[in-house]
């Protein structure tokens, strides 16, 4: 894999971790509601508020965090693509007697193109946000990343 592709994918993963997994931050009992655009916007707001509170962000930093959240959401949509049911797409790869390698390669190529298209924007937004933090806030982010897990920003 090319260096810039690896860096882009790593940046996307890091940005997702920093935001506490925007798509997984809803209350546990609400997963059955699905991920409509309205729900994603609602969860985005909650995540930005929670991280802002934990890091004690000022208005400029909150704006940069919100921009990062928007880029991660856009990237998520691009990665999902036009598929109505991505899980069914993956299940279709193993539905027959043989693994559908050509379709799997097509899906992989679509994901890589999406990462390459939006990855630099996510990296730039993450860099802008991180660089706006003071040394103590940066330390908090590094510590959280070291302890990362399902309860990364202390839900519950």
What are the key terms here?
156 residues, mainly alpha, 6 helices, 70% helix
**Nearest-integer average pLDDT:** 79
- Give the strand tally: 0
Low-confidence stretches: 21-28
> Helix coverage percent of residues?
55-70%
Instruction: Categorize the overall geometry.
Output: elongated
* Cα distance spanning the termini: 39 Å
Would you spell out the secondary-structure blueprint of this structure?
Layout lengths: L2 H16 L18 H19 L3 H22 L5 H8 L7 H32 L2 H12 L10
Helix pairs in contact: 1-5, 2-3, 3-5
Summarize the structure.
With 156 residues, the chain is mostly helical. Helix 1 packs across helix 5.
Outline the structure in words:
The chain has 156 residues and is mainly alpha-helical. It contains 6 helices and no strands. The chain is elongated and about 55 Å long.
């Amino acid at each position: 894999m090319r260096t810039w592709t690896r860096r882009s994918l790593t940046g996307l993963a890091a940005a997702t971790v920093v935001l506490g997994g925007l798509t997984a931050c809803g209350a546990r009992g609400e997963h059955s509601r699905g991920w409509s655009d309205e729900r994603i916007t609602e969860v985005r707001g909650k995540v930005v508020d929670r991280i802002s509170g934990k890091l004690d962000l000022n208005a400029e930093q909150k704006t940069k965090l919100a921009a990062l959240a928007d880029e991660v959401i856009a990237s998520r949509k691009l990665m999902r693509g036009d598929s109505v049911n991505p899980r069914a797409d993956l299940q279709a790869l193993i539905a027959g007697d043989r693994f559908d390698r050509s379709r799997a390669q097509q899906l992989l190529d679509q994901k890589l193109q999406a990462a390459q298209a939006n990855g630099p924007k996510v990296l730039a937004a993450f860099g802008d946000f991180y660089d706006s933090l003071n040394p103590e806030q940066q330390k908090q982010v590094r510590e959280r990343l070291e302890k990362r897990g399902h309860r990364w920003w202390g839900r519950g």
